[in-house]
Amino acid sequence: MSTSTIEPPVVAEVTGANSLSSVSEASGFRVAAYAMAPAIAAAVALASHFLFPDRHDLPMSWLDEVPASRHPYPLVLLALSAVSLLGAGVQWIWRPLRPWLAHFAPLLAGGIGLACFWELVTTKLAWMPQPFFPSPDQVLGGLIEDRGLLFKSTQQSVLLLLSGYATGVVAGVACGVLIGWFAPVRYWGMPAMRLIGPIPATALVPLAMVLFTNTYPRGMALIAWSVWFPVTMLTTSGIANCPVSYLEVARTLGAGRLYLIFRVAIPAALPSMFVGVFMGLLVSFLALLVAETVGVENGLGYYIKWQQGYLEYAKVFAAIGIMAVLFSGLLTLLFRARDWVLVWQKGTIKW
Known about the structure:
The protein has helices spanning 22-51, 72-90, 98-124, 136-145, 147-181, 183-196, 205-211, 215-240, 244-252, 257-294, 300-309, 313-341. By secondary structure, the chain is mostly helical. It folds into two domains: 22-134, no CATH class; 148-345, MetI-like fold, CATH 1.10.3720.10. Helix 5 (147-181) packs antiparallel against helix 10 and helix 7 (205-211) packs across helix 8. Residues 1-24 have low confidence and may be disordered.
């Protein structure tokens, strides 16, 4: 797993000539072929969409009143095809676009091919039971139909996740510094952490429902608990393993206890602390779903449970897709922050 951006393949550039050299011409044709791949994949997907009949009786929705050519799935395919063709043309004029096209166009073509296969096995060949496995057209339709509610649910989930996550990180760093630096605190704190830390947030749901009458603090507490343990554990390890030479040099120069903690031990423990913060973010996603499905009556988790009760699995898949984009984006931001803080370790962990 890696935090830095994957660099696209470098396309040879030749400068100082009135016309492109043979190497640059060959590179341009090759990139144009890459850029055309999504358009070709979209053409195949469109042919499959319109030529193969639907073998499933699809659930009634607003799409029933819309002509087939104006359904969201074929419109998205046409838009991606247009972008692909535009990129193939623009790269001849704006050559810096070439490495990005060469890198991302095959991935886009693969995604379109996956969507085509998805539609074939659901509505065209009826290999998957309805309504539990909707087609991409149904999922896009559900996303459009409930766009307002999904946007509000996403806002609520992000707010609950970030508030609980921030609380858990602050508590975990504070506990980790205390346990890692002070021997008396470590004597009592380590056994307690080993005993109660591994308890999953799901096991604490009944207790949280008793302690918190308001659903929002309840969900925030469950998320914070799940984040607290890995952050505390890795922060403690980083503080305790701070090189003694760093501390001796600082003491020789007259550093006091606070300086040793905040200017020597914590900076030295940052690589270990970021591992704990990363692990905490991963478990916070699970805790968010638990919180939203057992008490918090808003957010994407609640929306999924609600739509599942009405067998609206197209909307369930739409919410899952939003979660995938949201969680992946948060992980990317975390790794970018790590690269910015630990600039000397940039690229050691790639995402």
